[in-house]
Amino acid sequence: MGAFSEGTPCWADVLLPDLRAGKRFYGELFDWTFEEQDGGSGLLGEQRAAPGSPAGPAPYTTAYRDGRRVAALAPKGDGRMPTTWNVYLATPDAVAAARRVTEAGGLVITDPVPLTGDVAVVAQAADPGGAVFSLWEAGRRHGFERQGEPGSFCWTEVYTRDKDRVDAFYETVFGFQVHDLDDASVDFRVWSPAGTTAGDENAVGGRSVITDAFPAAMPAHFLVYFSVADCDETAARAAELGGRVNEPPFDTPYGRIALIADDQGAVFAVLAEPKAA
């Protein structure tokens, strides 16, 4: 795929304590194949060299579906790191975007750093509510080569308890055009890239709210979605592979969704779009 508009999710990777187990789980669940790269090519890969970690570079493993890049798996160099999926938002200038993050009340966790081989310049940040995300300034790679098809990324949304500050943050940092869902029972704001018309046809992500219906200890976070052909079959298969179905499949106007934790605890969602009538 070509260049991504600023603020558009363009890459995702998962930080795991057991890379071999991760390859087995996601390979069988999404029909992914894998390729290891020396030196890493993603921010979580860069973080592997934590104090006390084994000497030498650990492999940052790119995942492919039908020969096209869809995501990556990175080993945890430090047990204190979270086991989690991480989403990268595109920017033409990671240094400028990191500066806007700070000015808008967020936190730059990792300053912009070039990846080996001029792959990209990446940084990691947190919004004012504490949700962590990354920035991606494309070099040789723009990010996903496949998305919106089975076995690939299709959506992301941030969950927060501080919607007013978080809404202002993302709209300032990325210039999102926004609209709120016309459903009084759901507090959800949809993001469209700057220069486009706010609406589902241009949507790249969104903001949800952590309400009292969620566990009190749940932190603010981004949730990454993967497209699947059959939500129920995928959820059942994830359980067979040692994962956990946190939220059984349910229907929405956008398709059938399930919330899943892999066999090491990293949480993601799967979405099967409505079948054509």
Automatic annotation (TrEMBL):
Organism: Streptomyces solincola
Gene Ontology molecular-function annotations: hydrolase activity
Protein name: Hydrolase
InterPro entries per UniProt: Anthracycline_SecMetBiosynth, Glyas_Bleomycin-R_OHBP_Dase, Glyas_Fos-R_dOase_dom, VOC_core
The keyword Hydrolase is annotated on this UniProt entry: yes
Classification via Pfam families: Glyoxalase (PF00903)
Highest rank taxon of the organism: Bacteria
Region called Disordered, residue ranges: 41-61
Residue intervals of the VOC domain: 8-138, 152-273
Compositional bias of kind Low complexity: 49-61
Key words, A-Z: Hydrolase
CDD domains: SgaA_N_like
